Automatic annotation (TrEMBL):
<dbReference type="InterPro" id="IPR006115">
    <property type="entry name" value="6PGDH_NADP-bd"/>
</dbReference>
<keyword id="KW-0521">NADP</keyword>
<comment type="subunit">
    <text>Homodimer.</text>
</comment>
<feature type="binding site">
    <location>
        <position position="451"/>
    </location>
    <ligand>
        <name>substrate</name>
    </ligand>
</feature>
<dbReference type="InterPro" id="IPR013328">
    <property type="entry name" value="6PGD_dom2"/>
</dbReference>
<feature type="active site" description="Proton acceptor">
    <location>
        <position position="186"/>
    </location>
</feature>
<feature type="binding site" description="in other chain">
    <location>
        <position position="264"/>
    </location>
    <ligand>
        <name>substrate</name>
    </ligand>
</feature>
<dbReference type="InterPro" id="IPR008927">
    <property type="entry name" value="6-PGluconate_DH-like_C_sf"/>
</dbReference>
<dbReference type="InterPro" id="IPR006114">
    <property type="entry name" value="6PGDH_C"/>
</dbReference>
<dbReference type="GO" id="GO:0019521">
    <property type="term" value="P:D-gluconate metabolic process"/>
</dbReference>
<dbReference type="Pfam" id="PF03446">
    <property type="entry name" value="NAD_binding_2"/>
</dbReference>
<dbReference type="GO" id="GO:0006098">
    <property type="term" value="P:pentose-phosphate shunt"/>
</dbReference>
<protein>
    <recommendedName>
        <fullName>6-phosphogluconate dehydrogenase, decarboxylating</fullName>
        <ecNumber>1.1.1.44</ecNumber>
    </recommendedName>
</protein>
<keyword id="KW-0560">Oxidoreductase</keyword>
<feature type="binding site">
    <location>
        <position position="106"/>
    </location>
    <ligand>
        <name>NADP(+)</name>
    </ligand>
</feature>
<keyword id="KW-0570">Pentose shunt</keyword>
<feature type="active site" description="Proton donor">
    <location>
        <position position="193"/>
    </location>
</feature>
Amino acid sequence: MANGTADIGVIGMGTMGANLALNMAEKGFRVAVQNRTPAKAFAVRDDNPDLADNVLPAETLEDFVKSLKTPRRVVFMVPAGQPVDDEMAKIRPLLQEGDVMVDAGNADFNDTVRRSKEVEGSGLKFVGMGVSGGELGARHGPSIMVGGAKDTYPLIEPVLTKIAAKYQDEPCVAWLGPDGAGHFVKTIHNGIEYADMQMIAEIYGIMRDGLKLEPKRMAEVFRDWNTRELASYLIEITAVNLDEIDPETETPMVEVIVDEAGQKGTGRWAVIEAEKLGVGATTLEAAVAARGLSSRRGERADAAKLYEGVEPGQAQFFADEAGLAELESALVTAKIIAYAQGYAAMAAASDENSWNLPLGTIAEIWRAGCIIRSHFLDDIAKAYDKGHTVVNILQSPDFVGRVAKGQSALRRVVAKAALAGIPVPALSAALAYFDDYRRARGTANLIQAQRDLFGAHTFHRFDKDGAIHHQWPAV
Ligand code: 6PG
């Protein structure tokens, strides 16, 4: 391999790393590739003869580094956590001033902030970059959320712009802010992904247990919904999931799949960070919690036996298909609320970390390539593109009308589901948030009274300034 000829290098030839490298190679970049087990890097070249000229596997990390043009651009696509620190520690002594290290994995943004600080002053540059779109996205065009020093971005931008997904010819990549900004945005993307998927699964639950629809019919409904407001990748794949027949049993594939959802932690991080920022993203939280409960299948089966006799007996609320339009409208409305929560978390993080996150741009780069891609994101992009500040999507003039119109459907679906004993935790969380959010006078006055009684925590009065402690009767 000729030294100093590779435009960029990728370390970690797992599914995502290999596909990202092949995407770069296909777009005309010479890509050095490296893996802990070098054979894997050679296999990426050998298994893709069309792109072999642009894929340069290296036996050792030293060879890998030597093969790169300067300033060197090294992308890590290794499991999040310690492996990133390990790879960085190994390569740093081999790099020179001005070289760029890019962590493209699903990192915890707190780690990205820490790593940025560790690299500071060393002459090396560090970028934390969220990449969404799964295997196919990595190969043919992901959505890319970049964080790090602004003046580092031009060093990687030419490659990223070429490999990113395109929405009406616009590349779905942007520099979003310093240090952890890119990975934070990717984390919120995943939290929204969880909420989107959970709400779809809840609607599926109503279709299955309330309306007693067959998966094939459900697939038709989701395909129909995919032609309107809900049009999105997740609705599209749901129809495919529901249509699939298991070749072994010749029954719908969804019916042979165990009802326990896995999770790698990014959805949970989104919820934890939102809570830390004081903007509880309750719909996202309900989705994370539902995955947790789903995995306690044995315990659920035992509980089901204990409550066998307790039948809500109201399943007739969903007795016919006439309610499908109502389900569609409820899902649209809850989706707007879930996204509003994700956006509120990003706005708060932006303030907290002085990132100045471009919220409209984030919606723009999510319109294609990523898992939550949808036309709906174009509406969010437009809401942020009017030059006025959007306090919360639920206060944006573009969405107020839609939520006002759809809220009654959401309300009826949540109420009917409750009466029918069909769990809809994310849909109900969205509705509760909406009702709480639009209530000018809440009930926290009572909480303040309680806090003051048992702990002299003080409260404020409407008619006086300052913190006040009241002498409550002794209890
Ligand atoms: C993406 C996805 C991806 C994530 C998977 C699985 O944007 O491409 O968010 O990064 O790893 O969706 O996540 P869970 O295993 O947590 O469901």
